[in-house]
Protein backbone atom coordinates (compact mmCIF):
# COMPACT_ATOMS: atom_id res chain seq x y z
CA UNK A 1 0.00 0.00 0.00
CA UNK A 2 2.72 2.47 1.03
CA UNK A 3 4.86 1.34 -1.90
CA UNK A 4 2.01 1.94 -4.35
CA UNK A 5 1.35 5.38 -2.93
CA UNK A 6 5.06 6.22 -3.21
CA UNK A 7 5.11 5.12 -6.86
CA UNK A 8 2.03 7.23 -7.63
CA UNK A 9 3.48 10.30 -5.91
CA UNK A 10 6.82 9.82 -7.69
CA UNK A 11 5.14 9.50 -11.09
CA UNK A 12 3.05 12.61 -10.40
CA UNK A 13 6.18 14.59 -9.47
CA UNK A 14 7.95 13.45 -12.66
CA UNK A 15 4.96 14.41 -14.80
CA UNK A 16 4.63 17.84 -13.17
CA UNK A 17 8.34 18.58 -13.53
CA UNK A 18 8.30 17.42 -17.16
CA UNK A 19 5.27 19.54 -18.01
CA UNK A 20 6.72 22.62 -16.34
CA UNK A 21 10.12 22.05 -17.92
CA UNK A 22 8.75 21.54 -21.42
CA UNK A 23 6.08 24.20 -21.19
CA UNK A 24 8.19 26.93 -22.74
CA UNK A 25 9.21 24.74 -25.63
CA UNK A 26 5.88 23.09 -26.30
CA UNK A 27 3.22 25.63 -25.47
CA UNK A 28 1.62 27.19 -28.51
CA UNK A 29 1.53 31.02 -28.36
CA UNK A 30 0.01 32.65 -31.39
CA UNK A 31 0.89 36.25 -32.16
CA UNK A 32 -0.63 38.66 -34.60
CA UNK A 33 1.64 39.20 -37.60
CA UNK A 34 1.73 42.39 -39.70
CA UNK A 35 -0.35 42.29 -42.86
CA UNK A 36 2.57 43.26 -45.09
CA UNK A 37 4.86 40.63 -43.66
CA UNK A 38 5.55 37.31 -45.28
CA UNK A 39 7.54 34.13 -44.96
CA UNK A 40 9.78 32.84 -47.70
CA UNK A 41 9.92 29.10 -47.75
CA UNK A 42 12.59 27.20 -49.63
CA UNK A 43 12.38 23.44 -49.76
CA UNK A 44 14.12 20.67 -51.58
CA UNK A 45 11.98 18.11 -53.30
CA UNK A 46 12.53 14.64 -54.67
CA UNK A 47 9.96 13.09 -56.92
CA UNK A 48 9.47 9.43 -57.53
CA UNK A 49 8.59 8.61 -61.08
CA UNK A 50 7.90 11.24 -63.72
CA UNK A 51 9.97 14.36 -63.02
CA UNK A 52 7.53 16.43 -65.05
CA UNK A 53 5.00 16.08 -62.27
CA UNK A 54 7.36 17.65 -59.74
CA UNK A 55 5.96 21.17 -60.16
CA UNK A 56 2.34 20.10 -59.83
CA UNK A 57 3.01 17.86 -56.87
CA UNK A 58 5.09 20.50 -55.12
CA UNK A 59 2.47 23.16 -55.63
CA UNK A 60 -0.25 20.85 -54.41
CA UNK A 61 1.77 20.03 -51.36
CA UNK A 62 2.50 23.66 -50.60
CA UNK A 63 -1.13 24.67 -51.09
CA UNK A 64 -2.43 21.98 -48.81
CA UNK A 65 0.09 22.72 -46.12
CA UNK A 66 -0.47 26.47 -46.19
CA UNK A 67 -4.20 25.94 -45.89
CA UNK A 68 -3.77 23.42 -43.12
CA UNK A 69 -1.14 25.29 -41.11
CA UNK A 70 -2.24 28.89 -41.27
CA UNK A 71 -5.61 30.48 -40.82
CA UNK A 72 -5.44 33.78 -42.65
CA UNK A 73 -2.38 33.44 -44.86
CA UNK A 74 -2.21 32.65 -48.54
CA UNK A 75 0.37 31.14 -50.84
CA UNK A 76 2.09 33.49 -53.23
CA UNK A 77 4.89 33.42 -55.82
CA UNK A 78 5.35 29.71 -56.09
CA UNK A 79 8.40 28.76 -58.12
CA UNK A 80 9.83 25.37 -59.03
CA UNK A 81 13.38 24.81 -60.18
CA UNK A 82 15.94 21.99 -60.16
CA UNK A 83 14.86 19.88 -57.22
CA UNK A 84 13.76 22.85 -55.20
CA UNK A 85 10.70 25.02 -54.83
CA UNK A 86 10.06 28.35 -53.13
CA UNK A 87 6.94 30.22 -52.20
CA UNK A 88 5.75 32.98 -49.93
CA UNK A 89 3.17 32.90 -47.18
CA UNK A 90 1.39 36.23 -46.85
CA UNK A 91 0.94 37.54 -44.21
CA UNK A 92 3.71 35.84 -42.33
CA UNK A 93 2.90 32.88 -40.15
CA UNK A 94 3.85 33.02 -36.49
CA UNK A 95 6.25 30.59 -34.92
CA UNK A 96 3.75 27.77 -34.11
CA UNK A 97 2.25 28.01 -37.56
CA UNK A 98 5.67 27.95 -39.17
CA UNK A 99 6.53 24.87 -37.18
CA UNK A 100 3.28 23.28 -38.31
CA UNK A 101 3.94 24.32 -41.92
CA UNK A 102 7.41 22.81 -41.84
CA UNK A 103 6.04 19.60 -40.37
CA UNK A 104 3.30 19.44 -42.96
CA UNK A 105 5.64 20.02 -45.89
CA UNK A 106 8.00 17.31 -44.71
CA UNK A 107 5.40 14.80 -43.60
CA UNK A 108 2.16 15.24 -45.53
CA UNK A 109 1.43 12.17 -47.60
CA UNK A 110 1.32 13.17 -51.21
CA UNK A 111 2.18 10.03 -53.19
CA UNK A 112 5.43 10.30 -55.13
CA UNK A 113 6.91 13.41 -53.53
CA UNK A 114 9.14 14.04 -50.56
CA UNK A 115 9.96 17.57 -49.46
CA UNK A 116 12.66 18.83 -47.15
CA UNK A 117 12.33 22.37 -45.85
CA UNK A 118 15.68 24.10 -46.07
CA UNK A 119 14.85 27.65 -45.13
CA UNK A 120 12.03 29.69 -43.66
CA UNK A 121 12.73 33.39 -43.58
CA UNK A 122 10.34 35.82 -41.96
CA UNK A 123 10.26 39.17 -43.73
CA UNK A 124 8.63 42.28 -42.26
CA UNK A 125 8.03 40.95 -38.77
CA UNK A 126 9.88 39.78 -35.68
CA UNK A 127 10.17 36.02 -35.92
CA UNK B 1 23.39 -13.78 -23.99
CA UNK B 2 21.16 -13.69 -27.06
CA UNK B 3 18.15 -13.20 -24.88
CA UNK B 4 19.75 -10.22 -23.16
CA UNK B 5 20.56 -8.65 -26.50
CA UNK B 6 16.94 -9.05 -27.59
CA UNK B 7 15.69 -7.47 -24.37
CA UNK B 8 18.20 -4.63 -24.76
CA UNK B 9 17.08 -4.04 -28.34
CA UNK B 10 13.44 -4.05 -27.26
CA UNK B 11 14.16 -1.52 -24.51
CA UNK B 12 16.12 0.71 -26.91
CA UNK B 13 13.36 0.48 -29.52
CA UNK B 14 10.77 1.38 -26.91
CA UNK B 15 12.74 4.39 -25.74
CA UNK B 16 13.58 5.56 -29.27
CA UNK B 17 10.08 5.12 -30.68
CA UNK B 18 8.49 6.75 -27.62
CA UNK B 19 10.92 9.66 -27.76
CA UNK B 20 10.56 10.15 -31.50
CA UNK B 21 6.78 10.06 -31.16
CA UNK B 22 6.98 13.14 -28.96
CA UNK B 23 9.56 14.77 -31.22
CA UNK B 24 7.42 14.24 -34.32
CA UNK B 25 4.36 15.49 -32.53
CA UNK B 26 6.32 18.60 -31.59
CA UNK B 27 7.31 19.04 -35.21
CA UNK B 28 3.77 18.53 -36.45
CA UNK B 29 4.80 15.51 -38.42
CA UNK B 30 1.72 13.50 -37.82
CA UNK B 31 2.37 10.57 -40.12
CA UNK B 32 5.81 9.97 -38.65
CA UNK B 33 4.40 10.32 -35.17
CA UNK B 34 1.74 7.76 -36.03
CA UNK B 35 4.35 5.38 -37.41
CA UNK B 36 6.67 5.67 -34.41
CA UNK B 37 3.75 5.30 -32.02
CA UNK B 38 2.72 2.17 -33.90
CA UNK B 39 6.26 0.84 -33.53
CA UNK B 40 6.15 1.74 -29.83
CA UNK B 41 2.84 -0.06 -29.32
CA UNK B 42 3.99 -3.10 -31.30
CA UNK B 43 7.20 -3.42 -29.29
CA UNK B 44 5.28 -2.81 -26.10
CA UNK B 45 2.86 -5.62 -26.96
CA UNK B 46 5.80 -7.84 -27.85
CA UNK B 47 7.55 -7.11 -24.58
CA UNK B 48 4.35 -7.63 -22.60
CA UNK B 49 3.70 -10.90 -24.42
CA UNK B 50 7.25 -12.05 -23.79
CA UNK B 51 6.92 -11.19 -20.10
CA UNK B 52 3.61 -13.05 -19.91
CA UNK B 53 5.06 -16.06 -21.72
CA UNK B 54 8.02 -15.98 -19.36
CA UNK B 55 5.68 -15.90 -16.38
CA UNK B 56 3.47 -18.65 -17.85
CA UNK B 57 6.53 -20.78 -18.55
CA UNK B 58 7.63 -20.37 -14.95
CA UNK B 59 4.17 -21.28 -13.68
CA UNK B 60 4.03 -24.23 -16.04
CA UNK B 61 7.43 -25.43 -14.87
CA UNK B 62 6.30 -25.10 -11.28
CA UNK B 63 3.14 -27.06 -12.05
CA UNK B 64 5.18 -29.71 -13.86
CA UNK B 65 7.50 -30.00 -10.88
CA UNK B 66 4.55 -30.26 -8.53
CA UNK B 67 2.93 -32.86 -10.77
CA UNK B 68 6.18 -34.79 -10.94
CA UNK B 69 6.48 -34.64 -7.16
CA UNK B 70 2.94 -35.93 -6.72
CA UNK B 71 3.56 -38.68 -9.29
CA UNK B 72 6.80 -39.65 -7.54
CA UNK B 73 4.96 -39.82 -4.22
CA UNK B 74 2.26 -41.94 -5.80
CA UNK B 75 4.87 -44.24 -7.32
CA UNK B 76 6.67 -44.56 -4.00
CA UNK B 77 3.40 -45.29 -2.23
CA UNK B 78 2.54 -47.88 -4.87
CA UNK B 79 5.94 -49.51 -4.45
CA UNK B 80 5.46 -49.58 -0.70
CA UNK B 81 2.04 -51.11 -1.09
CA UNK B 82 3.37 -53.66 -3.53
CA UNK B 83 6.35 -54.66 -1.44
CA UNK B 84 4.72 -54.54 1.99
CA UNK B 85 3.30 -57.83 3.33
CA UNK B 86 -0.41 -57.92 2.72
CA UNK B 87 -2.65 -58.08 5.72
CA UNK B 88 -5.69 -60.29 5.46
CA UNK B 89 -7.90 -59.46 8.39
CA UNK B 90 -10.18 -62.43 7.75
CA UNK B 91 -7.51 -65.03 7.02
CA UNK B 92 -8.74 -67.07 9.95
CA UNK B 93 -11.95 -67.64 8.03
CA UNK B 94 -10.17 -69.33 5.13
CA UNK B 95 -10.15 -73.11 5.09
CA UNK B 96 -6.67 -74.47 5.45
CA UNK B 97 -5.37 -77.93 6.18
CA UNK B 98 -1.94 -76.73 7.18
CA UNK B 99 -2.62 -74.43 10.04
CA UNK B 100 -5.26 -73.75 12.55
CA UNK B 101 -6.47 -70.23 12.73
CA UNK B 102 -7.63 -68.77 15.94
CA UNK B 103 -9.60 -65.65 16.41
CA UNK B 104 -8.80 -64.46 19.89
CA UNK B 105 -11.78 -62.20 20.10
CA UNK B 106 -14.23 -64.97 19.33
CA UNK B 107 -12.48 -67.25 21.76
CA UNK B 108 -12.70 -64.66 24.49
CA UNK B 109 -16.32 -63.89 23.65
CA UNK B 110 -17.25 -67.53 23.48
CA UNK B 111 -15.50 -68.14 26.80
CA UNK B 112 -17.45 -65.34 28.42
CA UNK B 113 -20.73 -66.63 26.96
CA UNK B 114 -20.00 -70.19 27.96
CA UNK B 115 -19.02 -69.07 31.45
CA UNK B 116 -22.27 -67.16 31.74
CA UNK B 117 -24.21 -70.15 30.44
CA UNK B 118 -22.53 -72.52 32.84
CA UNK B 119 -23.14 -70.13 35.69
CA UNK B 120 -26.84 -70.11 34.81
CA UNK B 121 -26.88 -73.89 34.46
CA UNK B 122 -25.14 -74.19 37.78
CA UNK B 123 -27.60 -71.92 39.46
CA UNK B 124 -30.58 -73.73 37.96
CA UNK B 125 -29.13 -77.14 38.74
CA UNK B 126 -28.37 -76.18 42.29
CA UNK B 127 -31.97 -75.21 42.71
CA UNK B 128 -33.50 -78.28 41.01
CA UNK B 129 -31.07 -81.20 41.24
CA UNK B 130 -30.77 -81.48 44.97
CA UNK B 131 -34.32 -82.71 45.70
CA UNK B 132 -34.18 -85.14 42.76
CA UNK B 133 -30.78 -86.44 43.77
CA UNK B 134 -31.83 -86.76 47.38
CA UNK B 135 -35.01 -88.61 46.47
CA UNK B 136 -33.08 -90.94 44.14
CA UNK B 137 -30.48 -91.51 46.80
CA UNK B 138 -33.19 -92.26 49.28
CA UNK B 139 -34.75 -94.64 46.80
CA UNK B 140 -31.46 -96.39 46.19
CA UNK B 141 -30.65 -96.57 49.87
CA UNK B 142 -34.17 -97.76 50.67
CA UNK B 143 -33.18 -101.35 49.97
CA UNK B 144 -30.65 -101.28 52.72
CA UNK B 145 -32.89 -99.45 55.12
CA UNK B 146 -34.65 -100.94 58.04
CA UNK B 147 -37.92 -102.73 57.06
CA UNK B 148 -41.20 -101.26 58.10
CA UNK B 149 -42.05 -104.44 59.95
CA UNK B 150 -39.95 -106.00 62.62
CA UNK B 151 -37.24 -108.43 61.48
CA UNK B 152 -38.63 -111.23 63.69
CA UNK B 153 -42.27 -112.39 63.91
CA UNK B 154 -44.24 -111.19 66.82
CA UNK B 155 -45.98 -113.43 69.23
CA UNK B 156 -49.31 -113.44 67.50
CA UNK B 157 -47.70 -114.52 64.22
CA UNK B 158 -45.87 -117.26 65.89
CA UNK B 159 -49.07 -118.51 67.46
CA UNK B 160 -50.93 -118.35 64.14
CA UNK B 161 -48.19 -120.16 62.28
CA UNK B 162 -47.99 -122.83 64.85
CA UNK B 163 -51.70 -123.29 65.27
CA UNK B 164 -53.92 -125.97 63.69
CA UNK B 165 -54.75 -123.81 60.72
CA UNK B 166 -51.24 -122.91 59.73
CA UNK B 167 -51.51 -124.82 56.47
CA UNK B 168 -54.60 -122.96 55.38
CA UNK B 169 -53.66 -120.81 52.30
CA UNK B 170 -55.94 -118.01 53.32
CA UNK B 171 -54.30 -117.85 56.71
CA UNK B 172 -50.90 -117.93 54.94
CA UNK B 173 -51.89 -114.92 52.82
CA UNK B 174 -52.94 -113.02 55.86
CA UNK B 175 -49.70 -113.86 57.68
CA UNK B 176 -47.38 -113.12 54.75
CA UNK B 177 -44.07 -114.80 54.05
CA UNK B 178 -42.63 -116.82 56.85
CA UNK B 179 -39.77 -115.30 58.74
CATH-defined topology of chain A: Alpha-Beta Plaits
Q: Note the beta-strand portion of chain A.
A: 25-35%
The biggest beta sheet of chain A reads: 4 strands, antiparallel
Total count of domains of chain A: 1
Which CATH first-tier class of chain A would you pick?
Answer: Alpha Beta
Return residue spans of chain A where pLDDT drops below 50 for at least 5 consecutive residues.
none
Number of strand segments of chain A: 4
Query: Using DSSP, what is the number of strands of chain B?
Result: 0
Structural class of chain A: alpha+beta
Oligomer designation: heterodimer
Percent of residues in helices of chain A comes to 40-55%
Helix tally of chain B equals 5
Uncertain parts of chain B: none
| Terminus-to-terminus distance of chain A | 52 Å
Backbone CA Rg of chain A: 20 Å
Structural summary, described in words:
The complex is a heterodimer of chains A (127) and B (179). With 127 residues, chain A is an alpha+beta fold. Chain A has a single domain, classed as Alpha-Beta Plaits, CATH 3.30.70.1710. Chain A has helices at residues 2-26, 54-69, 95-107; strands at 38-47, 74-81, 84-90, 113-123. Chain A has a 4-stranded antiparallel sheet, covered by helices on one side. In chain A, strand 2 and strand 3 (84-90) form a beta hairpin. Chain A is elongated. The N and C termini of chain A lie far apart (52 Å). Chain B has 179 residues and is mainly α. Chain B is 74% helix and 0% strand. Chain B is built from 5 helices and no strands. Chain B is rod-shaped and about 185 Å long. The model of chain B has no long low-confidence stretch (mean pLDDT 85). Chains A and B meet through helix 3 of A and helix 2 of B.
Amino acid sequence: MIRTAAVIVGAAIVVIVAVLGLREATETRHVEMPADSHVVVRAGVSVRGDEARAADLSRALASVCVVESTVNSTLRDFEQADGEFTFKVVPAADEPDRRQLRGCLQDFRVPGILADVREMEVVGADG
Amino acid sequence: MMRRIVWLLAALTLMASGGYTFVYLYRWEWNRALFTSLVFIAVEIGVATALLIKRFTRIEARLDAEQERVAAEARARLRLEETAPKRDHFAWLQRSMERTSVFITILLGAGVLISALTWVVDRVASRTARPTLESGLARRLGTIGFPDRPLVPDDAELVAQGGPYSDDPAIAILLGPRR
